[in-house]
Hints:
The chain is an all-alpha fold. The chain has helices at 2-35, 39-42, 55-63, 66-97, 103-112, 118-131, 138-142, 149-159, 164-172, 177-188, 190-205, 209-214, 223-231, 240-274. Helix 1 runs antiparallel to helix 14, helix 9 packs antiparallel against helix 10 (177-188) and helix 13 packs across helix 14 (240-274). It starts with a helix and ends with a helix.
Amino acid sequence: MNNRKFKGLELCIHLVLIAGVMVVAFPFLWMILSSLKSLPDFYRFSFWPKKIDFSAYQFILQETDFLKWYWNSLLVGLIVTVSCLIFNSLVGYTLAKYKFPGVKIIFILILSTLMIPTEMLVIPWYVMGTKVNLIDSYLGIMFPGLIEAFGVFLMRQFMLGIPDDLLDAARMDGMSEFKIWWRIAIPQVKPALSALGIITFLGNWNAYLWPVIVTSTDSMRTLPVGISLYATGDSGGIQWNTIMGMSTLAVLPMVIVFLLFQRQIVEGITLTGVKG
C-alpha cells in the first residue's frame, strides 16, 4: 500500500513538472513558429504557420543592422564578463584576506551601492560619459559594469572560506601576492567564478536601459535596443514576424550558455545559497 502511494505521489509530481515545462516552453515555441510566418499569416492568430516562410529572417539579415547589433552585444558581454571576473575576484580577495584599517567600512560602502536603483545612476553616468567623450562608444556602454558590487560581495564571501594556512605556506615558498591570488585563490572559488561569469554575461546581453541612453547611432546599438526599434514601430511599422525572428536569434546565446554550463550554473547557485 505504501509502495502504491509512493508511486501515485511520484506520478503526480511528474505530471505537475510536465505541466510546468509546457507553460514555460509554450511562449518560446510560439515565438519560433511565429518567426516562420509571413506578416498576413501572423495576423491569422493560428498557432501553426499556414506555410513555412523565411522572409522574416531574410529581411533581418539583409535589410537591418542585426548582425552588427549581435556583434556589439557579444563584444560588450564578453569584455564586461572578463573584467568583472578579474577585478571582482581581486577586490574580493583583498577584502577577505588582508587586514588593514577601514577594511570593514570599505566593504560596507561597496555593499551600500547595491541599494541604489540603476535608474538613479544613469544621469550621473551620462554626465560623466559626456565630459570624457564616452557617449556612443563601446567603452561608454561597458564602463558601468566593468566592476560590480554584487560580484565583489560574492567573491569576498567565497574567499573567506580559503584557509589562511594555505596562503601562508605559499608565501613561505616565495610566491608573490599576485601568484597566490592566481594559482591558489582562484582555483578554490571556481564555482563562484562560473556563476558570476554566467550571470554577468546574461545580464549584459539583455541590458536595455543604459545602452539605449548612451547610444545614438545604428552601428553602436546592442540587440535589445535594436529590436526595440521594430517593437515600437520606429522603423516604419510594427513587423511582428520580424520581431519574433530577431528574438529567436537573440535567445540562442543564452540557450547555448545554459547547455554548455548547466552544471556550473546549478553548482554555483547552490553554493551561493549556502555560503555564509
